[in-house]
From TrEMBL:
Lineage top rank: taxon: Bacteria
Protein name in the entry: Acyl-CoA dehydrogenase
Ranges where the Aminoglycoside phosphotransferase domain occurs: 36-276
Pfam families according to UniProt: APH
Lineage start: Bacteria, Bacillati, Actinomycetota, Actinomycetes, Mycobacteriales
Organism annotation: Mycolicibacterium duvalii
Coiled-coil regions listed in the entry: none
Amino acid sequence: MTERSREEQRATVTELANALEGILHPVLGEVTIDDLQRLTGGASRTTWAFVANGRALILRTGERDELHASMELEARVQQRAAAAGAPVPNILAADNSAAALGNPYLICDAVPGETIVRRIFRTLDDAGRARLLAQCAQALAAIHRADADGAGLTAPDELAGWRHRLDEMGDTTATFEWTFRRLEQLRPDPSPMRLVHGDFRMGNLIVDESGLAAVLDWELTHLGEIYEDLAWFCIRAWRFGAPETMGAGGLGSVESFLRAYEDAAGAQVDRDAFRWWLTVATLRWGVICRHQAERHLSGENRSVELAAIGRRVSETEWDLLDLLEGAGPR
């Protein structure tokens, strides 16, 4: 980095700190911003950590788009989930306007803990995994009983949405086409629409010494069936190398997870409906992998990481055939 680049970066940080002081004044009074630093990670949003009068806070910013929930909607949904008992960061401010920071933003308290899954796994014994699995089930049950009325959430057709995403690429596979056809034929009767997180998985959770500390990354929240969240947590990708017998987030068996959810929610989970949604979730991940490969192959974003994700298409095809044949994770 050149000296000029460093100076421009320092100027940007200073401007951002000054803007944050103005944003937080109505909430916290006079504040001084310290230790403002941009964090890695976050595909759709930029994340900053900073300290305001000794209080550790997180800033998330990003352009408004049609794919992700707005910052104000994210904040509203998290507050409702918190009221229902879900562990989420405390929100201090959120605004869809780009006037203050150049983009919409959300500011919340920082939650201590770990998000990197392989590090989390290294700290857990069998009892710790079982405890965290039960806490994940309890968090989802709380999210699903949150009041979604009047929140401004949409209710997309997930299967049709991923069909459209694949068609937009102009590329497909025989396995994907067969799966779409079978899913349409086998679609179960719809269940009640609830608030769903949309991306509930290992990697979007903060874990500390007591277990689940917070559920993060609410930009895909919407109205949907509870099975969508339950199934997404159980696809191969979010096991991070754990064996198939640990099919629920690499923490325990799928059946243990579903039973823990039933205990927390006080309702039965239809295993056939769950299996249908698990197939949808696996197909969703396959389409995402193909899309990431296309970003690399088209030259839009040359990346070894995107190319490597693209190679996992064949992995999802295997899992889809397994599910359609009656096997799958346990």
